[in-house]
Amino acid sequence: MFIHIFNTARGKCPNCKHSTLFATKFKINDTCNSCGLVFQDNNDGTWFFLLMLDRAFFIFPLVVLMYMGVNPKQIAIIGLLLIILFIFASSVRMGIAVGVDYYFKFKLWK
């Protein structure tokens, strides 16, 4: 499982391992140019996993900080830093989401 996620986080197709996952830094190709694997379609779970990654690593820490009574200025600064981190790590997040979706779709259920 982890090899598929590791490969897709680096921009490689989880099926054929060619670097065809991303069209640009912020856009995933619809299909692999080498093997024809569909990375995402309208009924795909890729966006579910991406949404869960975003919630788990962005919203949850801020909620915990609010619960612990941290100063609102510090929470705002941490939130801003997390947003900047997510912008720079967007290709890794999208790759992880594609890798998890591929694993559940093709490896776990077959």
Structural summary, described in words:
Helix 1 packs antiparallel against helix 4, helix 2 runs antiparallel to helix 3 and helix 2 crosses helix 4. The chain has a two-stranded antiparallel ribbon. The protein is elongated. The chain has one domain. The protein is 60% helix and 5% strand. With 110 residues, the protein is mostly helical. The chain has four helices and two strands; from the N terminus they run αββααα.
Short description:
This protein is mainly alpha-helical and 110 residues long. The protein has helices at 2-9, 46-67, 72-88, 90-108, and strands at residues 22-24, 27-28.
Question: Descriptors for this entry?
Answer:
mainly alpha, 5% strand, 110 residues
Mean pLDDT figure: 83
What distance separates the N and C termini? 14 Å
Beta-strand fraction estimate: under 5%
Low-confidence stretches: none
User: What is Rg?
Assistant: 16 Å
* Tally of DSSP helical segments: 4
Helix content: 55-70%
Main sheet overview: 2 strands, antiparallel
Query: What is the string of SSEs from the N terminus onward?
Result: HEEHHH
Q: What would you call the structural class?
A: mainly alpha
Question: Looking at the structure, what is the overall shape?
Answer: elongated
Number of domains: 1
How many distinct beta strands?
2
Which strands sit side by side, in order, in the main sheet? 1-2
